[in-house]
Amino acid sequence: MGVDIKHKDDRKVRRTEPKSQDIYLRLLVKLYRFLARRSEAKFNKIILRRLFMSKINRPPLSIARLARNMKKAGNADKIAVVVGTITNDLRIFEIPKMTVCALRVTEKARERILKAGGEIITFDQLALRAPTGKNTLLLQGPRKAREAVRHFGAPGIPNSNAKPFVRAKGRKFERARGRRASRGYKK
């Protein structure tokens, strides 16, 4: 009798296609799957992997963060590439002229980029302009900015900054033991 092959680790847990049935996204996947296979550039493999991602892993990037990165030395004439949404930011008044490639750009952000003399291109246009990702700046929104992330971990234990799920912030809610020295201990 031979030794059986262990099959419990066979399943690879990573996406090989997007969950979405959006035909335009699927066409982009076809295009970048080809580019990732036929070109040596790592850029295309990264774009392809990000096209598969869930919405949580494709957080929106604000126009302010985009402008901040484009103002850095040597970045002014690069194409900013965002596999996600670019959103407006009312806190910033002046944005530089820039070329941007994104899956989606909100109405106000689009208006402001174009008004500054910038340009917005799609990923199929990017594939023609920079098939290997040359002269591009690949950016992502902040993944940890979600409110839900604040609750990750165990609240109440020493040195933990996890936010507890509390109904209210009043005197009677999670203010006793572990929160004040007079009631046992204060963490």
Number of strands: 5
Flag low-confidence runs: none
Average pLDDT value? 94
The biggest beta sheet reads: 5 strands, parallel
Q: Estimate the strand proportion.
A: 5-15%
Notes on the protein architecture:
It is a single chain. 27% of the residues lie in helices and 13% in strands. It contains five helices and five strands. The protein has helices at residues 23-38, 42-52, 63-70, 107-115, 123-129, and strands spanning 61-62, 79-87, 99-105, 119-121, 136-139. α3 (63-70) links the parallel β1 (61-62) and β2.
Describe the secondary structure blueprint for this structure:
Blueprint lengths: L22 H16 L3 H11 L8 E2 H8 L8 E9 L11 E7 L1 H9 L3 E3 L1 H7 L6 E4 L48
Parallel strand pairs: 1-2, 2-3, 2-5, 3-4
Helix pairs in contact: 1-2
Give short descriptive properties of this protein.
five-stranded parallel beta sheet, 5 strands, 187 residues, alpha/beta, 13% strand
Summarize this structure briefly.
With 187 residues, the chain is an alpha/beta fold. Helix content is 27%, strand content 13%. Strands 1, 2, 3, 4 and 5 form a five-stranded parallel sheet that branches.
